[in-house]
Amino acid sequence: MHVAAGAIRKARAVLVLLALALVLTLAGPFSGDAHAASRCTGRKVADLRFSTGNVQVYRSGGYLCAMTYAKHRGPLRPMAVSIQARGSRPVVKSGLHRASVGPVRTHVGHRKVWIKGAVGRGKVSKAWSAFGG
């Protein structure tokens, strides 16, 4: 009787491990694409252009999302994007990039926001504007 119980336990353990391996194998390709996850979704509400690039702003529900794009892909250079809802701290991403930086996403509800973006020496700043809210 004890031998049969031990064999059943081992068989269950093997089946659990096989099921886990199957789930991880099937979920692997769908666990996240870096490109898809690094872009904003929703309705495009603004395209703020400046000398060296542009900031694209998207709205989805009460959230705004923004990304800064360089006009020309090139060497690493300082890039930044930020969103600040009135009464909140800014959400910022910056660093050395070749083509784009972001996304930054924050809940804004119906508040006005301040959007900033920069590529190299060029920059844009749109203060306390409503973006489709």
- Per DSSP E runs of 2 or more residues, the count of β-strands stands at 8
Major beta sheet, specifics?
4 strands, antiparallel
The helicity comes to 10-25%
Distance between the termini: 70 Å
The order of strands across the largest sheet is 1-2-3-6
Q: Which geometry do the CA atoms define?
A: elongated
How large is the count of helical segments?
2
Q: Give the oligomer, counting copies of the same chain as homo and different chains as hetero.
A: single chain
What percentage of the residues does DSSP assign to strands (E)? over 45%
Radius of gyration: 23 Å
Q: Could you tell me the mean pLDDT?
A: 84
What is the H-and-E element order?
HHEEEEEEEE
Question: Which residues sit in consecutive blocks of at least 5 with pLDDT less than 50?
Answer: 22-37
User: Strand pairing plus helix content: what structural class?
Assistant: alpha+beta
Provide a descriptive summary of the structure in words.
The longest helix is centred in the first third of the chain and has 26 residues, at 2-27. It is elongated and about 75 Å long. The protein is an alpha+beta fold and 133 residues long. It contains 2 helices and 8 strands; from the N terminus they run ααββββββββ. Mean pLDDT is 84; it is low at 22-37. It is 23% helix and 47% strand.
Task: Give the key terms.
elongated, alpha+beta, 133 residues, 23% helix, 4-stranded antiparallel sheet
